[in-house]
Amino acid sequence: MLAVVLFVHYDGNTIEDIRTIKVEMEPQNSNGFTVLSANVGNLSLGCRKYLNNLCYKEVEQRIADNIQTLKPGIVTLQEVLAPWQCQTVNETNKKRVCYEKQEVAQVRRLLGPDYTVVCDTRNQFECVGVRMDLGIIDDCKTGELCFSARTAPALPDCDPGFTVSAVTVRFFDGLIFDLVNLHPQSTNDKCRAQMLAQIFASGEDFSPLLREEKVLLMGDFNMDPWRDEDKSVQTWQEIFRAGWGGYPLRYHNAGIETGNPDFTAFILWRKRTYDFIVSNFAVGTCVVLGESSDTPRLDGGHGMDHRALYGMLKTED
After folding, report:
1. How far is residue 145's CA from residue 279's CA, in Å, rounded to a whole number?
2. Which of 38, 40, 45, 215 is the most exposed place for a label (fewest CB within 10 A)?
3. Which of these, 177, 171, 152, 172, lies nearest to 162 by C-alpha position?
4. pTM for the whole thing?
5. Measured distance CA(171)–CA(174) in Å, rounded
6. Helices then strands (H, E): number in the chain?
7. Which segments of the chain have a pLDDT < 50?
């Protein structure tokens, strides 16, 4: 069927218009499901003491409204406000999240009640959600918020504020796969390369994050393999060429076929495709909300320095 999702496009203090995004959809949990990946943080000075995680109440509400309108089957979020963070912030600005008592975790406010949610074990900045009507996540009770994702250990001389984590998802139709939420270090390509390798390889003090033959990788990779050249890009290209579980890896971003996928990150003058979605078992294309033609931004116009990815993936017959 054809789903029409309405967004309010917000700019400043006025509503500009209402726009639509149309996605060709089959009944989810048959052979297709929608996915959303979003880095919801911001590099603004106002969010600095929040470690650049989502810190403005108004932005949070717009993102939450749009996520709950889209109702994606699978969600990966980066730079979410962790449940413990407001304990360390003395907030006097009424516009910021920690001004209010945090009775409900931000990730739950963003996703609403219809998801099982699992966050990384180290910081709880990166979280995944699976809609309860589609399936379950191993090691987390259905509908709960858990801090039990398989998170790669922190690396020496690297920033522990960045993580890569995995969970095992079991759809009710029998599909089982590992879902990886990526947010490797942005400021050091060698650390970023090592974190990418941790997903697929084992070391002296850790096992590979992946357990299943099928894998879906989503998130902010903090590198652009189409435009950058550094150690992390080299490592990723090796991983991509090798595939996983005996199957090739495949990108799902719009524009991949031309080698120029839509930009997802806009930091000062630098435009890059840092956010992407990859699998070894699905087909389908994900648009970049706010960049792909006739799509609005997930944040309603401002508030995120990355653009979210959204689309339908189908399992191959």
Report:
1. 25
2. 45
3. 152
4. 0.91
5. 6
6. 4, 19
7. 1-19, 22-27
